Structures are given as structure tokens and as C-alpha cells.
Amino acid sequence: SKNIVVAIDGYSSCGKSTLAKALAKRLHFIYIDSGAMYRSVTLFFLRNKINLKDQESIKNALNDIHLDFQTTESQTLITLNGEDVSKEIRQMPVADMVSTVSAIKDVRIEMVRQQQRMGRTGNIVMDGRDIGTVVFPDADLKLFMTADPHIRAERRYNELISKGEKVNIDEIFENLAKRDHQDTTREESPLIQAEDAVVLDNSYIDEAQQLDFAMVYIKP
Ligand code: C5P
Prior knowledge:
It is found in: Cytoplasm. GO terms for molecular function: ATP binding; CMP kinase activity; dCMP kinase activity. Its EC number is 2.7.4.25. About 50% of the residues lie in helices and about 15% in strands. It has about 220 residues and is α/β, with parallel strands linked by helices. The strands form two sheets. It has a five-stranded parallel beta sheet with strand order 2-6-1-7-8. The chain has a three-stranded antiparallel beta sheet with strand order 3-4-5, with helices on one face. α1 packs across α9, α2 packs across α4 and α4 packs parallel to α8 (about 170-185). The longest helix has 17 residues, at about 170-185. The relative contact order is 0.22. The mean pLDDT is about 95. Cytidine-5'-monophosphate (C5P) binds near residues 99 and 131.
């Protein structure tokens, strides 16, 4: 039988990955964080000082990148050529560059190809910006998440602070606003709500309520 795909898209720091993880756990599906893939490519480009105007270098770099997800009891790790980069991809240098890198056509072509391949390995929940529109247009359930930008900045701030990062709330607010702008206005697969997506605004509801909301749309 066909694999079941749940696609979750939406703005930055809307709690997409929190809901995606909870759904995957409840349903015993694989969870794939597509943003972590774009972040890891960005980290590789930064480390190797790839010239973003040089298509040949970009293509070569993409060939040199091998990404893998490793799920343990408590968390999902992403590895870049065997190195666990889960922590480093959340830091500001990557956050500042990721929307620029992910607007590059060749980067998207390669990531979408890998994501579609992962979709053939089993039932999955994948979150990102173009999952319901481009990666899996035939997804069984598409959720489009949104929340008040100030609440989103506050949540991201608390998350990073709790991980011991030194961050400033204004800087986070600016970063979210800038990424949302870049992600919704780019030429290549911009962030847009799929016609058949269910909208979930989670500004004022908790994680358990979001899970209940989503589960209603999943046929047993
Ligand atoms: O989901 P997350 O906020 O970690 O994603 C980081 C960035 O990666 C986004 O701001 C966006 O620029 C890019 N992205 C994308 N397409 C996806 C997932 C993420 O362009 N499917």
C-alpha cells in the first residue's frame, strides 16, 4: 500500500517541528525536518566559503554534501558528512544565511529530490515551506501553520535561552521577519498555503490541543 504523508508548512518558528514530532510519535511515522537540510547545506557553504553566484561551485558543493537523519529515543540528529551538526545549524550565522541559500534553484532541486526519496521509505511527517506545494503535492494531510510574530519570537527566544545560547529577542524578531519575507517572496517555490491545506493558528493553543486538532484529519 501507499505510504502516508503528512505535510506541514508555515512561517518561521510557528511550532511546525514540535507538532510534526508529536504527530510522528503518535502515529509511529518517520519525522523529517526539511529546514535542517537547508540549514546544513548553508553551514557547508559558509564553512567552505562557496561563492553563491558561481553555479559550478554550488553544484560541486552539493555533490560533496551527504546528509543523514539519526533518530534516537529522545531526539533526531542531523549529520553532515558524518558530523553531528544539529546544534550548530540553529545558531545565528546559519539562521542569517539560510533563506538566501535556500532560494538557490540548484539547492532546491537537490533537496526536493532527497526529500521525495525519503517519502518512499515509509509513512512520514515532513515540515518545511514547500512540502505540501512542491515536495508532496499529493500528501494525505497538509497543515499550514501560522502564529502571531511576537509570540513566535518569544518562543524561539525561550527555546534558545533554555539551550544556553546567548541571544537577544529583537535580533530574533528581526531574523524571523527577514526570513518570512525572503521565503514568501522568492522566485523558486515560495512559501504559500496550498489550496487544500488546513490552517492552524497556534498563537493561543498549547501543544496537546494542536495535536488533537491535527489528529482529527487523520483517518484511522
Ligand atoms: O524550518 P526552518 O526554520 O529551520 O528552516 C530554515 C530556512 O530554510 C527557512 O527560513 C527557509 O528559508 C528554508 N526552508 C525552505 N524550504 C523548506 C524548509 C526550509 O526554503 N522546505
